[in-house]
Amino acid sequence: MSTTQPLLNIQHLHKSFGGLKAVQDVSLQVPEGSLTALIGPNGAGKTTLFALMSGFLRPDSGRVQYAGQDITGQSPERNARLGLTRTFQIVQPFAAQTVRENIAVGAHLHLASRREALARAQQVAEQVGLSPQLDKLASDLTVAGRKRLEMARALATQPRLLLLDEVLAGLNPQEIAEMIPVVRAIARSGVTVLMIEHVMQAVMSLAEQVWVLAQGRLIAQGTPAEVTSHPAVVEAYLGHGTAERLRQRGATPVQGAAA
Amino acid sequence: MKDLRNILLFVLVVASIPLWSDSGVLLNFVMTALYACLLAQAWNVLGGFGGQFSFGHALFFGTGAYVQAIAQMQWGLNAWLALPLGMAFAAAVGAFVGALSFRYGLKGSYFALVTLAFAEVFRIVATSVPFTGAGVGLMLPLRESAANMQFGTRAGFVWLMLGLVTLALGITAWLRHSRFGACLQAVRDNEDAARAVGVDPFRVKLAATVISAALMGAAGAFYVQVFQYIDPGIAYGPHTSVEALVGAIVGGMGTLWGPVLGALGLHILADLTRNLFGQLPGINMVIYGSVLVLIVMFLPRGIAGLGVFTPGQWLRSEKKGERS
Q1: What is the CATH number of the domain that holds A237?
Q2: Which residues of A touch B201 (CB under 8 A)?
Q3: What is the CATH number of the domain that holds B210?
């Protein structure tokens, strides 16, 4: 497949819940092999957009194309088989099972043998730093552990496109610092990563390109440095007129804008 | 594998009982206890491993029982052919009810109510149509011979039942160590997470319903062979559904030995209270009920939740064993 064709291509997606327009006319293209981020204030529609991409929700209108195929409204389990998988912002472990068993469920997508799936689970656990907890019950993990488990289970499916929904939320600064290299390593291993993230430190250091969603609409896109100084983005986060006031004061809103 | 070794041990011990004892009381007890084990095991496949709580497993039991009787009496088939046919019909009913329920996303209490309703509908239909003998039921003619699956002694039935229980144990062990079992438990624990990693919940739950129903159908067929009589109340009444789910819940859902322990424990309890307090009608059920309440209160994970039988610990000790 040519490098010019995006791996994920969404066009004019719309989704409403009753009177609430959660996602309005969003189009974006994720190039293969990239590490990109989707940011925006709370309630901007980021998670809804992920659900539309991965098949958990069906858009009211618009199209989702993955690897050249139209997958609009296709079920998440079929998308996972094509290599598109996601994690959940609110972690969803199989609580009654061990970490190893949790990850093995992902590995079973392409491995029929139990032995191979368990072995693969062990490898993936090493990749995300979960090896010491392999035989713990998922319900006994800390928040950081559960976030790692979310990633591990998704990674075990050997995805081509991984949608990470706030894997850093709720972690302390040290845990964040430990997690950033893990995400970077995943991207380096050839997996295309699109992440929703609130932690700007991570977005700035990881993402090549950033999309900003506010009130269901894409308001900006570009490199992290470009979007954080974009007036519309500053206003979305800090309120109407902020950009103007900051400019009058001669200050340039930078990295910390969204944090 | 440890599970297979334990199953083999269990089978050898139980199979030897008729060889050293010809006590009718003991063999009768073993047979009915094994029968209760099969009911609990069948329910456990869907309820314990799949997390889909059926209140109407009698639906599959009754279907297996009626097919067993009708195939012999009206279609002229041999009992040994009727048994797999009974299981197949039960499985087909399971596929039908499962497909309907899961297609429309019924979960939890809604699924329980739908299964209950289906069992009731079948009970009413069986009371009204002629080929089930309507309210009078069907009486299987006595033709004592192993070839007709009508053994002269209890030993034959014990071995037959043991065979069916072994099948159920084998399927349960397979669920614990296979891709299908992993997917089924994933769907039980978190359906959305399972979908995100490529598990199709509809297919997995449907397959579990079919397996569970087939085992339940086998229990129904066995019932007909032993008691040579079936009527709509026995076949589709709530008693069998309750016996199946209580055995699995009391024993420990989603475990290999829990339903066996639960069914056995309850069976002993029921026998004891009946024998000790038989003169006071109803008091045995009061005691039975009280003990059930105590078990549910103090052993929320069932009898298998005690000691080494916790699935987590069980698995962990197993893995340590495999590594060393």
Answers
A1: 3.40.50.300
A2: 77
A3: 1.10.3470
How far is Cα A188 from Cα B11, in angstroms, rounded to an integer?
53
DSSP structure string for B183-221: HHHHHHH-HHHHHHTT--HHHHHHHHHHHHHHHHHHHHH
Does the predicted interface ipTM exceed a cut of 0.90? no
Q: What is the pLDDT along chain B (324 residues), one digit of tens a residue?
A: 789 999 999 999 999 988 888 888 899 999 999 999 999 999 999 999 999 999 999 999 999 999 999 999 889 889 899 999 999 999 999 999 999 999 998 888 899 999 999 999 999 999 998 888 888 888 888 888 787 888 878 888 999 999 999 999 999 999 999 999 999 999 999 999 999 999 999 999 999 999 999 999 999 999 999 999 999 999 999 999 999 999 998 888 889 999 999 999 988 888 888 888 777 777 877 887 888 888 878 887 888 877 544 455 445 444 444 433
Burial grade of A11 (CB within 10 A; 0-12, 13-18, 19 or more): middle
Distance from the Cα of A37 to chain B's closest Cα (Å) equals: 20
CA–CA dist B117, B123 (Å, integer): 10
Domain carrying residue A211: 8-258
* Number of domains, chain B: 1
- Is A54 a member of any domain? yes
B185: closest chain A residue by CA: A94
Integer Cα distance of B171 and A243 in angstroms:
65
**Considering CB atoms only, which of B178, B190, B319 is closest to A92?**
B190
Q: Which of A71, A89, A108, A147 to mutate to test the interface with B (most CBs of B within 10 A)?
A: A108
* Mutation for B interface: A56, A99, A103, A105, most B CBs within 10 A: A105
Domain that holds residue B104: 2-323
**Strand pairing of A61-66 and A8-17?**
antiparallel
A37 within domain boundaries? yes
Give residue A74's region: left, alpha or beta (phi > 0; psi -120 to 50).
beta
Task: State whether residue A95 sits within 8 Å of chain B by CB.
Answer: yes
* Number of separate domains in chain A: 1
Cβ(A105)–Cβ(B183) under 8 Å? Answer: yes
Residue of B nearest to A158 (CA): B197
| B196 to A94: CB separation less than 8 angstroms, yes or no | no
Query: If you count residue pairs, one on A and one on B, with CB atoms under 8 Å apart, how many are there?
Result: 90
Residues in chain A: 259
Does A208 reside within a domain? yes
Contact B179 A94 (CB under 8 A): no
* φ and ψ at residue A36, rounded to 5 degrees: -125, 165
CB-CB neighbors (< 8 A) of A92 in chain B: 190, 192-193, 196
Nearest to A140 by CA among B312, B298, B317: B312
Would you say residue A3 lies in a domain? no
Give the gap in angstroms from C-alpha A80 to the nearest C-alpha of chain B: 5
